[in-house]
Amino acid sequence: MSESPLCWSCQSVLPASPLLCPNCGKVQPPSATEYFQTLGLERKLNLDTAALEKEFHRLSRRLHPDRFARATPEEQQWSLANTALLNDAYRTLRDPLQRTEYLLKLEGLEIGEEHAGKGKTRQPPADLLEEVFDLNMQLEEMRMNRKLGEDDPALQTDLTNARTRFESLLATVDADIATKGAEWDAGDAAARDQAAKSMAALLDRRRYLRNLVRDVNEVLTA
Amino acid sequence: MPEEIPNQRAGIERIVGIDLGTTNSLIAYMEGDKPVVIPGVDGSNLVPSIVALDPVDPTVENPRPTVTVGNSARRALIENPERAVYSVKRLMGRGLEDVQDELKLFPFRLADDIEPGEVLRIRLGDKHFTPSEISAYILRQLKRNAERYFGAEVTKAVITVPAYFNDAQRQATRDAGRMAGLDVLRLVNEPTAAALAYGLDRAKEGIIAVYDLGGGTFDISILKLNDGIFEVIATNGDTHLGGDDIDNLLLAVALDEIRNEHNIDLRQQPDAIQALRKAVIEAKIILSTEPVAKLDIELPDGARYQREIPREVYEQLIQPVLARTAGPCKQALADAGITPDQIEELVLVGGSTRIPAVTKLVDEIFQLSARGKKSHTELNPDEVVALGAAVQASILAGSSTATEELLLLDVTPLSLGIEALGGVVAKIIQRNSTIPASATEHFTTGVDGQTNVAIHVLQGERELAADCRSLARFDLKGIPPMQAGLPRIEVKFLIDANGILQVTAREQRSGLQSQIEVKPTYGLTDEQVETMILDSFDHAETDFEARQLIEARLEADTILSAVEKAPASPAWQLISEEEKSTIEGARLHLEAVKPSGTLETIRKATTALDQATRNFAEKMMEAAVSGAMRGKTMQTASEDLGDAVSAPHPFAPAEFK
C-alpha cells in the first residue's frame, strides 16, 4: 500500500485498509489492518458498544459470504477473509477486557496467557501472598474431604467467604482498568505509556484472581 | 400428487433447501414469498432416511449397483434386511472407536477391515459404502423429487446439519452433497434454520431460543433478532441424544421383562427385537396424546407379552434421557450471558418435542408459563428445518423480496485448538465465535535445518488433546533450512460460513508460501470423493429429459419386479379379490406404457401401481413381523455383531423423528 489504493471495480480512491469500496460497495481484496481501523474507529478504550454493534450489522449486511453466493470466486474469497476479519474485530472490541488486551498488544506490550508461563502456577500478587497461601491449603483440604466423602460445613463457609472476597477484588481490578483506560484515552504520550504499563499489570492480576475464583468454584460445585 | 408440473420462469436456477435427517429427510424451496416442502412421488413430504441396495439381476454381466430410497426401501428391508441401512447420520464423520455404542443399539453392519482412524464403510449385500455415499443416495432421491416437481435440473442446495456437528461431520455432509451431484452452497445449522422459518413472517426483535430434539441429535441455540439479522449468540447440544434413545430405553425394559416373566431371551433374535422396537415406538407415539398405551406381543413360544404403560411410568422412565438436554441449555444460557427470563420466544423443533414431558421440561428450564408465555409449535416440527433451509437458499439466491433483508450470523459450536507441548490444547478460536472466524499463529523449528513442522488441530472444550476431537494433522513442509528457532511460519486458521476449517501457511523470513499437506483425521480426500460421485452423474451432460425418462423406466422396473413376486407372499391371501384385480390392471398398464410411453404417462402409471399396492405392502410387512416373532420367516443374518441388535427395523413410522 505505497500509493493511495484504488477500487478494482470503479477506480475511486479508497481509504486505508477498506473492506468495501465506499463508492460502489464492491468488496476489496484483504489488506493487513488492525481491528480499530476495520471498524472505522479511533484507537480508544472507551467506546460506544451500541454504535459498534450497529456498525457491525451494517457492514455484515454488505460483506457476508451469503451476499456473494453468485459473485466471482475471487470476490467470494475476499468476502470470506474480510468477514472473518470483521467478526474477529467485533468480538475483540465489544468486550472491554479483550479490547484493552488488544490495544496494549498493538502498543507493543507483552500481554496475555502466552507470556504468563502457560500451565504453571504463577507467583501470586505480593499483597495477596498470605491470603492465597491459606486459600490453597483450604482448597486442598476440601478436595481431600471430597475424596474421603467427609463433610466440613465450617470449611465450606470459609471457602464461600473467600470466593466473595476474591470476587470483590476482581471487581476492584475491573474498575481500576476502566480508570486507567480513561487516562490512556485522554493522556499524552508519557501518560499513555504509564497507563498502559499499569493496565498490563492489572490484567495480570486479574488473570490470577480469575483463575483463583475458578478453582474455588470447581471445588465448591464438585 | 405433483402430477402437473408447475410453470417455471425460464433461466432462473432454483436453489433448494434440504434437511438431511437421522430418521427423515426433506427438500423444500421458496415459492414466491413462502417456503414449501416438495413431496415425493408417493405424495409424502418426508423421505425416510433408509437406503436399500437393489437385488442384482443374475442375467446381467457386471451390473451397476442401484438402490431404493425412502418409503419404497421399507419394502426391500423385509425381503433383504442385510442390504438396507437407516439412521446413517449417526455415522457421518466418525471413526470406528466413536461408534461402539451405536453398534450395540443399531443394526449397522460394518466392513471387517476398517482400521482405527479410517472412514467407516457399511456393508450392504456384498458391497461397501461410506456414510457419505449412503447419504448421497438419499440426497439424490430428494434432488430427483425436486427435479420431477420443477421439470428442470436442480444442482444447487443448502443442506442443514445439527448445530453441534463438528468439522468432520460437516465435511462428510458436504462430501455427500457433492457425490449426489449437488453444489452445496451452504451448510446451515438446524436450529438456526428453524429460527429463519419462524422469523420470516414475524420480523421480530429480541432474544429467542430454539430447542431442537430430533431422532438422533439435540441442539439448543440462542439468537438475537434485530432488524432482519439473526445473530446466534450461543449454541450447545449433544449429537447423540434424541428419540432413538427413548426407543432404546423402552426396548431394553421390554426385553428385560420378557426374560424375567417368560424366561425367553429375545436379545439374540434380531427379527423379534425389530418387531418389539416397532411396538414400543408406537406406544411412545400414543403416549404423547393418551394417558396409557398397551403393548401386546406374541412371543416365539406362543405366549403373549402384555403390558400397560401409564404415562406417569413412561415419563419417569424417560426422565433421565430428557434431563440430559438441561445441561446444554444451561451452558448455552451461561455462554450467552443471559438468564432464562430474558428469552422472549422459544421455538420447538424435532419430532421428539411432541412428547408432553419434553414441553414441560422446556417450560421449567425457560420459565415460560411462569411468565405467561408458550413455546412456538405453529410450524410442523418435522418440516420447519427444511423450510428454514429454503429461506436460506433464497437469501443466497437473492431471489425473493421476502428474504433480501435477512441475514444469518451463526457461530462455531466448538472451540478450535492446537496441541501444544505436553499434550495440552491451546485454544485459538473460542466456541460461540461468529463465523467466519479466524486466528493466526506462529510456529518455528526446534532443530537446525528442520524443514517440516507438524501441527495437530483439535476441536472441543477439554484441556488435554487426548480428550478433544482430532480434526487434522497439518504438515508444514518446504521450510527453508535455517538455524533452529529462526523460521517464522505464519499459519492462518479460518472457519468459514459452513463451520468448516481452512488452513493456509507462509514462512515469513523467506516469504515463501509453505506447502501444506492436510491429512483429515476422519475425512475423505478430494480424490476419494471424486471416485465416489454417484455413477449416474458420469453423464451429467446428457440430455436432462432423456435422463429423466431413463430414471422413470428404472423406477417402473423396480416396482414391477416387486409386484411380480407379490402372489408368492402369504400377505397376498389377506387382500380382497377386487384389490388383486386393481393391482393387476395397474401392473398391466405400466408394463404397456413403459417401453414407449412419455415421461408423464410412465410416471402416472408408476404412481398408480404404487398406490394400488399400498395396502398389500402394509399387510406384507405385518405378516413378516408376526412371522418373525414365531421364528418362521427368513433366516437371520449369520454375521452377528456381538450382542448387538443386528436387524434393521423397517417400521419407524415416517411421521416421527
Descriptive overview:
The complex is a heterodimer of chains A (222) and B (657). By secondary structure, chain A is mainly alpha-helical. Chain A has two domains: 7-94, Orthogonal Bundle (Helix Hairpins); 117-221. Chain A has helices at 35-38, 49-63, 73-94, 96-106, 129-148, 153-186, 189-221. In chain A, helix 5 crosses helix 6. The termini of chain A are far apart. The model of chain A is unreliable at 116-121 (pLDDT under 50). The two termini of chain B are 23 Å apart. Chain B is 33% helix and 23% strand. Among the domains of chain B are: 15-188, ATPase, nucleotide binding domain (Nucleotidyltransferase, domain 5, 2-Layer Sandwich); 416-524, Substrate Binding Domain Of DNAk, Chain A, domain 1 (Sandwich), CATH 2.60.34; 544-612, Up-down Bundle (Substrate Binding Domain Of Dnak, Chain:A, Domain 2), CATH 1.20.1270.10. In chain B, the strands form seven sheets. In chain B, strands 1, 2, 3, 4, 10 and 11 form a six-stranded mixed sheet that branches. Chain B has a five-stranded mixed sheet with strand order 17-12-13-14-18. Chain B has a five-stranded antiparallel sheet with strand order 20-19-22-23-26, with no helix packed on it. The chains are: A mainly alpha (222), B alpha+beta (657). Chains A and B meet through helix 2 and helix 3 of A and helix 11, strand 18 and strand 21 of B.
